[in-house]
Design goal:
Pur_nucleotidase, 19 helices, about 575 residues, 5'-nucleotidase domain-containing protein 2, magnesium, hydrolase, HAD_sf, alpha/beta
């Protein structure tokens, strides 16, 4: 709602009076003046003598604010009062959202977690896969099918698995997998499982069972959670886009075993599937598919050339650090940028073995010739236009002198690409999140906007009206809570029926979002978003209210829920 209000203000003079009218129309939502402390509420106490800081005022009780609807007297029909407030709020919410309020967000925008001026950036670095090269979803089916066949032919898994095909849209990035419990699930920034998003195989696990599995709570203890690189003692977090077919294969195999009553060892199954997926990459199978049909698998190549050429024309230095082999990168870059693509880069490093490249000092650089063959000479400098293999970041920094905030590196994997660079080396980082485009298009729909706004308003009503504890009022509140849960489920399903948005678990940020904010200065759907901004543009992150600043939010203003104990009604606490 706060974002909605700010966006409306930015649209022009006609929007500001509308918001003012909203504030005025909230008079019927106001609590009594004595229920608001200081100047954080709607109305002000009649007694203008301020109370001592930190102490509740007592004495003459002020009357209701002008124009406010008085609370029901003791013994009055609170049920009727509660439903009246409900309908008033529903009308207010729908009046608040005028036609055309959608499409507030631009899928091609760049979003800032930290203030950063591109004018201060002298050197741009890039990952290759899913950063410079965006791939068609056809690739996921190929990875799934090939890994499935490896399980059957090499690991001797049941041939019945051959009936399973890749399910597009089953999983989302950022999910956790509990190896011992065979649970694929979404976890929020506070380590809580989002109920309704835990799957064993292809079927959801009841909420009650999930809570029982974790000792009567939804919370996952810190020692079980993923480490710095998403690999905990019992939980694995799937962070890259290539992991989507792996999660689907994992779920499909478990589904087959459960359906056919086959007992299996959870650790061995997880390791076998991980090894099968790894073989698709390590043995070069995936590279061959893409090389044979670059037009089908690689997307938006012309935009990549435009980005790189523009940066070079503005005297920026460019480098590439990728885990992919040179022959594969060379073919892809020639397809997207042209045969002279290497002229744009000051240096190219392939098979870098990230994230070890950023932490392990032991591997020296090796030079490759134009055909990709290894050279034996000692590397004392990194030359423009040359290709290097392996190496480590410490030698890279020593040989280039490229340090600190003048370097901006882009990648899609928050752990392998960005975490070390930001936290340990002070580089600026940009996360490529292709899912952002789809999610923003959903956020821009009228259905999502209305559902979210009403959900926020209903939550405010629940918080404000929970003081009524008679039997009829409790029944009303239970109905509201049920409706709120239905809206939350509906909103989640707009993004993904199984797991919802990669950015939110209902109202909380996901564990993925927490890492996105921590490890990236800016994030965007694709590298081509840079074309929408001047090379000296400064990104300013929006100031989003902290919880103690919550009265600044429109839903708080409209419901009279000011996040402070109501002095009169909460007197029993004192």
């Amino acid at each position: 709602m706060a974002a909605l209000g700010m966006a409306a203000l930015r649209r022009g003079s006609g929007a500001a009076p509308r918001l003012l009218a909203v504030a005025v129309s909230c008079q019927s939502c106001r609590p009594k003046a004595s229920q608001c402390s200081g100047d954080g509420g709607h109305g002000q106490p009649r007694d203008h003598h301020p109370a001592a800081p930190g102490r509740a005022r007592r004495g003459a009780e002020p009357g209701p604010a002008a124009g406010s609807q008085p609370l029901p007297a003791e013994g009055a029909d609170t049920k009727t009062y509660l439903w009246a407030r409900y309908h008033e709020m529903k009308k207010l919410v729908y009046d608040l959202l005028p036609p055309g309020v959608c499409n507030l967000l631009n899928p091609a925008a760049i979003y800032a977690n930290n203030e950063i001026s591109l004018g201060d950036v002298e050197i741009y670095g890039f990952d290759y896969d899913y950063t410079l090269a965006q791939y068609s979803n056809l690739l996921h089916s190929m990875i799934f099918n090939t890994a499935r066949d490896i399980l059957i032919e090499q690991f001797k898994y049941p041939e019945g698995l051959g009936k399973y095909d890749y399910i597009p849209g089953f999983a989302i990035r950022g999910l956790h997998y509990d190896v011992q419990k065979s649970l694929l699930m979404k976890i929020d920034a506070f380590h809580y499982v989002q109920l309704g998003t835990a799957y064993r195989g292809l079927k959801p696990v009841p909420d009650e069972e999930v809570i029982e599995l974790y000792g009567g709570t939804q919370h996952i203890p810190l020692y079980q959670m993923s480490d710095f690189y998403g690999k905990g003692p019992s939980l694995k977090q799937f962070m890259d886009i290539f992991s989507l077919p792996e999660m689907t294969l994992l779920s499909s195999v478990i589904d087959y075993f459960i359906t056919h009553g086959i007992e299996f060892d959870q650790v061995h199954l997880y390791k076998d599937i991980s090894d099968a997926i790894r073989d698709v990459h390590v043995k070069g199978v995936m590279y061959k598919w893409i090389e044979k049909d670059l037009e089908q698998y690689i997307l938006h190549g012309d935009e990549i050339y435009a980005v790189l050429n523009r940066l070079v024309n503005h005297k920026k230095k460019l480098f590439l650090i990728t885990n992919s082999p040179f022959s594969f990168v060379d073919k892809g870059m020639k397809h997207m940028v042209g045969k002279n693509w290497r002229d744009l880069f000051d240096m190219v490093i392939v098979q870098a073995d990230k994230p070890n490249f950023f932490t392990d000092r032991r591997k020296p650089f090796r030079k490759l010739d134009d055909k990709g063959s290894l050279q034996w000479d000692k590397i004392n400098q990194l030359e423009k236009g040359k290709i290097y293999k392996e190496g480590n970041l410490f030698d890279f920094l020593r040989l280039t002198g490229w340090r600190g905030s003048k370097v901006l590196y882009f990648g899609d994997h928050l752990y392998s690409d960005l975490a070390d660079l930001m936290l340990r080396h002070g580089w600026r980082t940009g996360a490529i999140v292709p899912e952002l485009e789809t999610e923003i298009r959903i956020i821009n729909t009228e259905q999502y906007m209305h559902s979210l706004t009403w959900q926020q308003a209903l939550t405010g009503l629940l918080e404000r009206m929970q003081m009524y504890q008679d039997a009829e009022s409790k029944q009303v509140l239970l109905e509201w809570m049920k409706e709120r849960q239905e809206i939350r489920s509906l909103t989640k399903n707009l993004f993904n029926p199984q797991f919802g948005s990669i950015f939110r678990t209902f109202h909380n940020p996901t564990y993925f979002s927490r890492r996105l904010v921590r490890f990236s200065d800016i994030y965007m759907a694709s590298i081509s978003c840079l074309l929408n901004y001047d090379v000296n543009f400064t990104f300013y992150p929006r100031r989003t209210p902290l919880q103690h600043e919550a009265p600044l939010w429109m839903d708080q203003l409209c419901t009279g829920c000011m996040k402070t104990p109501f002095l009169e009604e909460m007197v029993h606490i004192r």
